[in-house]
Specification:
Elements (H helix, E strand, L loop, with lengths): L4 E9 L2 E5 L8 E5 L4 E9 L2 E6 L11 E8 L1 E4 L7 E2 L6 H8 L18 E5 L8 E2 L4 E8 L2 E6 L6 E6 L3 E3 L4 E7 L2 E6 L2 E4 L8 E3 L10 H6 L7 E5 L6 H11 L4 E7 L3 H10 L16 E6 L5 H19 L4 E7 L1 H14 L13 H9 L3 E4 L5 E10 L9 H9 L2 E2 L4 H5 L12 E2 L2 H12 L3 H25 L6 H18 L13 H23 L4 H5 L2 H12 L5 H20 L3
Helix pairs in contact: 5-6, 7-8, 11-12, 11-13, 12-13, 12-15, 13-16, 15-16
Length: 591
Amino acid sequence: MDNRIIGHVKRVNGPVIEASGITDAMMMELVRISEGRLIGEIVKLAGDTAVIQVYEDTTGIKPGDNVYGSGMPLSVELGPGLIGTIYDGIQRPLEELLEACGEFIEKGVTRPSLNRDKKWHFIPTEGLTPGSKIDSGFSLGTIVETARVTHKILVPPGVSGTIISISSEGDYTVENIAAEIETEKGPIAIKFFQRWPIRKPRPVKSRQPLSVPLITGQRVIDTLFPLAKGGTVAIPGGFGTGKTMTQHAVAKWCDADIIVYIGCGERGNEMTDVLTEFPKLVDPRTGTSLMERTILIANTSNMPVSAREASIYTGVTLAEYYRDQGYHVAIMADSTSRWAEALRELAGRMEEMPAEEGFPAYLPTRIAEFYERAGYMIVQDGSEGSVTIIGAVSPPGGDFSEPVTQHTKRFVRCFWGLDRQLANARHYPAISWLDSYSEYLNDVAEWWETTSGAPWLKNRAEIMELLQKEVRLQQVVKLVGPDALPDSQRFTIEVCTLFKNAFLQQNAFDDIDRYSSVEKQVRMLEIILIYARRGAEAIQRGVTVVKLRHMKIVQDIAKMKLSISNDDITGLDKLEVRLERAMDQLESIYE
Ligand SMILES: Nc1ncnc2c1ncn2[C@@H]1O[C@H](COP(=O)(O)OP(=O)(O)O)[C@@H](O)[C@H]1O
Ligand SMILES: [Mg+2]
C-alpha cells in the first residue's frame, strides 16, 4: 500500500507540508513523504490540495517529492509488549531507534511499535472452541505481560461472530493469529495485536458515575482535594513549584493498575531525566521496577513539535486499550502547556487565524477532547475499567489567567494549584489549600467513610473551615499584631500551623513520609481535630494558648507523620489516647 503515490510536495514550512495533485486520500490519513519515507498525517484536505503535518525533520524535502498514501489513519499498535516500553509521540520505540541511529534519529527510520520476534505465552479463555459466539471486547485469552500485568487479547471493536479456530496454549509472536472468526462480512483473522487510530476514542458500553478515589498516598491530595478514578485533574504551577515531583509521586504511589506517563519536554534535560531515571525507579511496595506497570511516552527536544502534538492522543489511546481489559489506568501529561504550544506553532505554520495569545481558536475544543477520554466505564465485555487524566500546566510566569490554564479549568473537575510562595518556603507539596478544589468530594465520600469508618467529609470540612478562618486572622495579625487577637483566635492559628506542618507538608524523600495509607491519613486528621476541638473548649475554661502550645504531646503530633509508619496504626491509637489524657489533665486544673 505504501508505494501508492497520491500527490506531490508543493511547499515546505517546517513540520508542515502542502501537497498538490492529491488523488484518493482521506482526512487524517497516514502518509509517507519522499524517498526517505518521512511519516506524516493529512490534517487538511481541500480539492486536490492537502496540508500534511510531518512527524520528522523535513530538512531536504523539496517541491516535487512524492507523497505516498497508506489508506489508514495515524494509528497505534495495541498488544503485549507495551508495558515497560519508552515510545516517542507517534509510538516509535525510542530505545530501539536510539540503538539503530545513535543520538539523532535518522529520517524515515522505523521500527515496529511492538517487537515482532518476541514470543508470548498465550492461554486461551476456557470454553472457547470453534462454534463459540463472540463479540467485540471479548477476551480470547491471556498473556502474562509483566509481573504486574496480565494482558487480555481482546476481540477488536466492531468485530463479532463465531469462532472458526482459536490458538491453543503456547508461545506466539504478536503477528501470529490468535483466532479466526466468521463474521457477517466473512472470515477475519485476529492477531495478538490490533491497531487503533489515536484521535478516535475507543468505544465502551457505558460511562459510570465516579465513586472510587484514586488513592495517591499524598495527604493534601487524598484528604483535601481527592481525585476519583476516571476523573480529571490539572496541576498548574510556575517553573520549579513541583509539577514534575507531584506527577512522579502520583506515578509511583497511586493505586492505578497501569501508568501512562507522557513527558512533553519542559526543558531539554528534564526529558533526559525522565528517560534515564524513570526506568530505575523501584516500586516501593513490591521492590520491582516501576516499569512493570508503566508506559513512557517521551518527546525529546530534538523531535518535531508535531510529535508532541500527537503524543497525548497516543498516550490516551494506549490507556483506553488497558481500560478495555478491565484495568484502572492513570495518565500523566507533563506538561500540557508544551503540547498547546506545539498546537500553536503548527496552527501558525498553517496560517490559521490566531485567537487568544496566538493559540488557535480550537484550543479549548482540543483540550476538551483530551480530558473527555477520561472516565469510569463499563467496557465492551461488561467489566469495569477507568482512565484518569492528570495534566500538568505550566503557565508562563505562573500566571493562571493565561488561556491554557483557563480553558483546562473548564474541562477538569479537580485542580491542584501550586503556589510559588509555598514552594519558596519549602512547603512541599506546594499545593495551595486556598486555590485548589475537588468536585469529587461528594462522589468519593461514601468510599472513604465505609473504608475508614470515620466521618471523613465532615472532618475535612472542619479543617478547611479552620484554614479559611486562619487567612482572615492572619490579615488582622498583619495589621495589628498577634497580641490583639483573643486566645481562641490565636489558637485557631496555632492549629492551622500544626496542620500545615504535621499533615500538609509531606517529604517525598523520607521513607515513611513519602506515602500515607488511607487509614493513617484519616487518623492523623482526627488527632489534629481532637486537639483543635478540645483545645477550643479548654480556652473557654481559661486555659491559655501558650499552655496549649507547650503541651509535650503537640511535639509528638508534629512528628507523627515521620515516626509512625503506615502499618503501625496502634501507634496512632496510643497517641490519640495520650492526647485525650493530656487534655483531661490540663482541663482538670481549671475545674
Ligand atoms: N513533594 C516534594 N518534596 C520535596 N521536594 C520537592 C517536592 N516538590 C518539589 N520539590 C522540590 O522542588 C524542585 C522543583 O520541582 P519540580 O517538580 O521539578 O518543579 P516543576 O516541574 O514545577 O518545574 C524539586 O527539584 C525539589 O527539590
Ligand atoms: Mg517539571
